[in-house]
Amino acid sequence: MALDAADLGPATSLTCRECGESYELGPRYACEQCFGPLEIAYDFTGVTRASIEAGPRNIWRYRGLLPVPSNVQDTPNTEPGFTRLVRADHLAESLGMQRLWVKDDSGNPTHSFKDRVVAVALAAARELGFKVLACPSTGNLANAVAAAAARAGIRSAVFVPADLEQQKIITTAVYGGTFVTVRGNYDDVNRLASEIAGEQEDWAFVNVNVRPYYAEGSKTLGYEIAEQLGWRLPDQIVVPVASGSQLTKIDKAFQELIRLGLVEDRPYKVFGAQATGCSPVAAAFKNGHDVVRPVKPDTIAKSLAIGNPADGPYVLDVVRRTGGAVEDVTDAEVVEGIRLLAGTEGIFAETAGGVTVGCLRKLVASGALDPEAETVIINSGDGLKTLDAVAPVARPSAEIAPTLEDFRASGLA
Amino acid sequence: MALDAADLGPATSLTCRECGESYELGPRYACEQCFGPLEIAYDFTGVTRASIEAGPRNIWRYRGLLPVPSNVQDTPNTEPGFTRLVRADHLAESLGMQRLWVKDDSGNPTHSFKDRVVAVALAAARELGFKVLACPSTGNLANAVAAAAARAGIRSAVFVPADLEQQKIITTAVYGGTFVTVRGNYDDVNRLASEIAGEQEDWAFVNVNVRPYYAEGSKTLGYEIAEQLGWRLPDQIVVPVASGSQLTKIDKAFQELIRLGLVEDRPYKVFGAQATGCSPVAAAFKNGHDVVRPVKPDTIAKSLAIGNPADGPYVLDVVRRTGGAVEDVTDAEVVEGIRLLAGTEGIFAETAGGVTVGCLRKLVASGALDPEAETVIINSGDGLKTLDAVAPVARPSAEIAPTLEDFRASGLA
């Protein structure tokens, strides 16, 4: 591919997160020296609050901070982002907290934060000469890739396990790209995707061969929170942990904003949230380990069910550096978390949101999180996608005949 | 209820749409003289582009044009609105059109335009002294009422037919209000709701006894479209028709903006879209009738399945006055419409959106709609809520074993 003319905005190179080796921008994702993950390095110039505020009402307002072309907003993409930051006084009250916000990413085009990372991956992939947007997935990512490619007018190729729920098949297939079910589990699908990426040189698997670009999309959550708070960082933030990338990138965003002088440099604490049935990072945190020991996931929070999280060690770094913690909650607490958020704020979260609310509650109860300090939690997806999780408990109050007598007798008047 | 102190912003009175009789603001909805529907009358003062643009990024930026308290944004509500207006070049291209936009209301908090009308109903109902937010519903409205009441910290009471799909039960019950299933069809539920409204004087049934306020919420779709186009009206707009209220209120919004000098006074055409299986307004339009003859609905577009649409005659007035038309499409065309929008723009609409896209296509083909003129279509809800409609056709491209050989053999490389 001809990269000489590539415009990736402020991105200047790829550097190895482990050994620091530097590489030219391109479709690389692992260090040739040590196999460590590659990260985007930048040279930010001319980014001010005013320049951001003059931008579109989506993630492209932060294009000066992302590895995307400077005219990125002129090309169709799903234009995610700038989702609501909701003041959650009733939830706060129920937890004995003072000042709580929910960053509600269910408002994105396909109703999860994956639209952010996919949009950045798509923009970078086009610039790097890729022709097909692809991924292995079991849910939200499949929706986001198929939708973004459709909107961009390019081909998508999504690979999922053949036993995926019918519902998730429909919500991806409707966008009309190439959609392959694979007889195997997610690990099999993932391995096959890597093999195909090695053969099909113009296929960008967003979470494989263009992962360094893709992952940067999560920074926009951090930028938006700061801007929506009036260019200010919260005291505490609680972030769900799957691969761990979202948490580390929000921290990266906060650090960049401080360095650029866009927000005041003040301490903040980052907390991670996992489901107990897939809590390798929480376990490492609690045991004081630096290494994250892989687990076999067994939880209803399937969008967080990554047993061997690539960014787990970096999550531990961030959490320990900022004075946060990593907590985990049982599946029953996940369901309670979903109901609590819905019942207090009218926000119906997918299981990942239930994990985050459940962990918030536990962190307040244990004293790890300060109930007086301003706190933001991330709702990364939509309850409409995980109805099965709450089906057993989300039941009607009563069934009656269509008469006033029966209504009166129900005791509900 | 003590209405003397009620602050309903610019609203001044209720007037009968049929006979013009005027009433004080209050919890009325039908004319005592002729039983005609009541509409809000206003005295707008001090509303400018600048005053609107300085407001919050939700429908409350238009509070100066709505029957809500002037400090409405200080009280928790679901804060819907300011959803995306998406430039749809690929859809336009596939239909041979020049300049097409999709107003995508699936981005609202519970993913349908009902959040708008419920938010206004809630704000007015609180001000009028009601204590419970209620509705009869079969879907989107139930979600919106339960969510808004939860967020506002007041009680909800939602009534649905007992044979409603399990999925719709869950998405309402999760918010935790009073939720009653009624052994009967929707007509039975609706009748029961009116009876209860007559007995429970502090229950606001949003679509019954506070309907005049509720219906005004749809005006915000019109305001937003004009503002998002840069304070300009489109040449043509295609709106789905259930009760017909959304279409007439968008027209009302456009007329208000013209009268206030916020947009240029230029002609626009309003088109209505129905499913053939419930197309009483389209039938009346095509037959040149002024009266809408009720039908028994039989269509997959259940959110539009109102056989006796209250605002049907007013839809005919608007469409004829502006030079538009009312079209209808079969259920197969509805599904095609959903797939076309998803495949060209990455927007997964519920069946109502499929109706709108299908009618757009038919209107262009027939020449009733000018493909060269700037056109806006409304997507009023989310495909995640009507998965069954597309399940038979949204299928994978292929199923393979997890090997490169099988992938190559699939012919998908």
From TrEMBL, chains A, B:
Recorded hits in InterPro entries, A to Z, give:
Ser/Thr_Dehydratase (IPR050147), Thr_synthase-like (IPR004450), TrpB-like_PALP (IPR001926), TrpB-like_PALP_sf (IPR036052)
Q: Which residues form the Tryptophan synthase beta chain-like PALP domain?
A: 80-381
The modified positions for N6-(pyridoxal phosphate)lysine read K114
* Enzyme's top EC category: lyase
Keyword Lyase appears in the UniProt entry:
yes
The cofactor(s) it depends on are:
pyridoxal 5'-phosphate
Pfam families from the UniProt entry: PALP
According to the UniProt entry, its GO molecular function terms are: L-serine ammonia-lyase activity; threonine deaminase activity; threonine synthase activity
Specify whether Lyase is a keyword of the entry. yes
Sorted keywords for this record are: Lyase, Pyridoxal phosphate
| SUPFAM superfamilies listed in its UniProt record | Tryptophan synthase beta subunit-like PLP-dependent enzymes
Q: What is its EC number?
A: 4.2.3.1
| One GO BP annotation of this record | threonine biosynthetic process
Which NCBIfam families is this protein grouped with?
Answer: thrC
**Stated family:** Belongs to the threonine synthase family.
Give the protein's recorded name.
Threonine synthase
